[in-house]
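Task: sequence design from structure.
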């Protein structure tokens, strides 16, 4: 007869893994939520939102490193390279979301901003938790990257094998690498060229990193991509002048952007937008410099797509917009 203790024995490797995970800040119990199931709904909501704000505060302390990551992304995209996000579970889904949001907002080529997730595309909608343990899958998912590219590995805990495999392989192929994690910096040296360790601490719901850690991760990804797109000339003032008008709402927004950037009437903005073949930048330069669409495009091309540069080139020393 098999002894009960024999049936439940763990291998040394399993014991080591358990100890490793147990020590993670993202797996710790939060001291303010030990009685979470007995709190009022309003109290629970208050705790969750307070923790989100703490996660954002933790991200703010890394603004210099986040800015460096944004500059790397801008350099890669400007030189024809690729930005790729790689992660598992919630982290992987946040990478997929960021990659999906850039083309309509900034007019980027979907092939230039990509995302891979442990378990493949189906894992976006249905959990594939075991997939995160396959380091080789992470390696295989980034074999198209090279020296002109940037990989941002996403792992709330910092120890996800899939993300680590992707980072290791990308570095071997010469790509710049960033690890965005919500763990502490301890023992993470050499994992990536740039480390963004937010150290957001334990979650209100123990181990549920889709909460505070997820919110902080999404905020940092927003900051990286938005800053990079500003550097690339896809923003004029605070207006998204490279958006893709894929819906009635976005077409209306495009016309309002032209109107806001030029001071013309709504009717004039619609006409300029039409004459510019729905190119917001072209319509703005047309109106501001009284140019034809062709001439406006030529000026923008000379300014590498930056509206402000195109406008200032006509009036040295004058800042417009």
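Answer:
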């Amino acid at each position: 007869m098999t002894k009960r203790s024999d049936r439940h024995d763990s291998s040394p490797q399993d014991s080591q893994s358990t100890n490793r995970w147990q020590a993670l800040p993202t797996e710790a119990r939060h001291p303010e939520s030990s009685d979470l199931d007995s709190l009022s709904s309003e109290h629970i909501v208050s705790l969750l939102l307070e923790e989100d704000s703490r996660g954002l505060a933790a991200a703010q302390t890394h603004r210099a490193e986040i800015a460096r990551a944004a500059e790397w992304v801008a350099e890669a995209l400007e030189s024809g390279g690729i930005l790729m996000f790689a992660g598992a579970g919630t982290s992987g889904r946040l990478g997929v979301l960021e990659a999906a949001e850039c083309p309509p907002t900034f007019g980027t080529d979907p092939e230039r901003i990509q995302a891979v997730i442990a378990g493949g595309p189906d894992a976006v909608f249905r959990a594939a938790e075991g997939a995160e343990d396959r380091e080789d899958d992470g390696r295989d998912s980034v074999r198209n990257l090279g020296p002109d590219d940037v990989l941002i590995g996403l792992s709330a805990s910092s120890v996800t094998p899939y993300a680590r495999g992707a980072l290791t392989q990308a570095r071997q192929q010469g790509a710049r690498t960033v690890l965005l994690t919500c763990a502490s910096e301890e023992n993470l040296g050499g994992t990536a060229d740039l480390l963004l360790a937010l150290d957001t601490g334990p979650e209100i719901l123990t181990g549920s990193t889709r909460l505070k850690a997820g919110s902080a991760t999404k905020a940092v990804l927003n900051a990286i991509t938005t800053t990079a797109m500003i550097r690339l000339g896809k923003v004029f003032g605070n207006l998204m002048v490279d958006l893709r008008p894929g819906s009635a709402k976005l077409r209306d927004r495009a016309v309002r952007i032209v109107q806001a950037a030029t001071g013309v009437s709504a009717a004039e903005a619609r006409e300029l937008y039409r004459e510019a073949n729905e190119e917001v930048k072209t319509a703005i330069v047309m109106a501001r410099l009284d140019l034809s669409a062709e001439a406006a495009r030529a000026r923008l091309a000379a300014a590498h797509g930056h509206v402000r540069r195109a406008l200032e080139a006509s009036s040295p020393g004058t800042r417009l917009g």
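The chain has a mean pLDDT of 90.
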